[in-house]
Structure to design on (295 residues):
């Protein structure tokens, strides 16, 4: 399975029973408005971006490479009346990174941005493994 | 004048080792074609330093404002760092020990270091050494085994040129 599929399955499990559901669609824009802003209280996950970098360089080009995989997740909720369990939801999304195996770096950070009466939580995942 | 570049494939630095009993302590016999089955390349070297350091004895004289000096026997070694390869680290090549067993058994080892490729006319140094200073390490942020390795040279370096 792909990293996105794994992560999405983990987030779906982590958020079951919460006020936020999970969409398998990509967070594309419709009429200039992102889906996660149109469909509030729904988690969207981007496609995986990959970056291959050199971990160990050698004199005979038997170099060791690593792949850095980054994905972005989004949840938008009403800023005035946030779901009561929003902090639990944020923690669950952050912790879902730990359910992905075979990566030696599994990081995620969450930021929030308020615009009008909406607050959007953005999750930046970073997974690194050896090639 | 020409600098010694090692970035092209044909100019890679190559370190060959042989500690089988077949070469009977004579380096000239260690890297002939008949010894190919007992010789292996140290793969994935990250850096290599050749140290050829004469000892210095110094003394002061009442008739001189500066110290006098004379050389004593040299300490010669080759220090390198390597990304460990499973095969050459753990396994024998013919009747030569892998790197770990070379250290464990304190095996007298013939080495040949090609400075920039192994083609006709390319230069090398060779000699006899003991492998030491093996210290494999791995960390969560850099999860491949790497290790320093020192070849403590017995006697002099010999130089040579690859012949056609």
């Amino acid at each position: 399975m792909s990293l996105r599929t794994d992560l999405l399955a983990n987030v779906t499990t982590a958020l079951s029973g919460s006020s936020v559901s999970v969409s398998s669609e990509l967070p594309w824009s419709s009429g200039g408005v992102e889906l996660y802003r149109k469909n509030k209280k729904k988690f969207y996950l981007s496609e995986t971006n990959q970056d291959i970098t050199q971990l160990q360089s050698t004199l005979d080009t038997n170099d060791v490479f690593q792949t850095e995989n980054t994905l972005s997740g989004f949840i938008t909720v009403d800023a005035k009346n946030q779901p009561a369990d929003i902090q639990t939801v944020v923690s669950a999304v952050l912790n879902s990174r730990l359910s992905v195996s075979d990566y030696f770096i599994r990081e995620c950070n969450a930021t929030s941005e308020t615009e009008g009466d909406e607050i959007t939580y953005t999750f930046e995942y970073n997974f690194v493994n050896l090639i | 004048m020409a600098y010694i570049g090692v970035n092209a494939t044909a100019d890679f630095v190559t370190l060959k080792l042989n500690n089988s009993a077949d070469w009977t302590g004579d380096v000239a016999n260690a890297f002939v074609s008949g010894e190919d089955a007992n010789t292996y390349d140290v793969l994935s070297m990250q850096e290599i330093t050749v140290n050829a350091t004469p000892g210095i004895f110094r003394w002061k004289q009442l008739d001189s404002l500066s110290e006098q000096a004379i050389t004593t026997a040299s300490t010669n070694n080759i220090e390198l760092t390597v990304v460990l390869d499973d095969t050459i680290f753990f396994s024998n090549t013919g009747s030569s020990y892998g790197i770990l067993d070379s250290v464990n058994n304190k095996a007298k080892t013939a080495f040949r270091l090609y400075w920039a490729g192994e083609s006709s006319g390319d230069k090398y140094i060779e000699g006899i050494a003991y492998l030491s200073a093996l210290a494999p390490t791995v960390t969560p942020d850099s999860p491949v085994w790497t290790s320093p390795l020192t070849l403590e040279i017995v006697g002099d370096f010999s130089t040579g040129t690859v012949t056609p």
User: Anything to note?
Assistant: The longest helix of chain A spans residues 3-15. Chain A has one domain: 3-130.
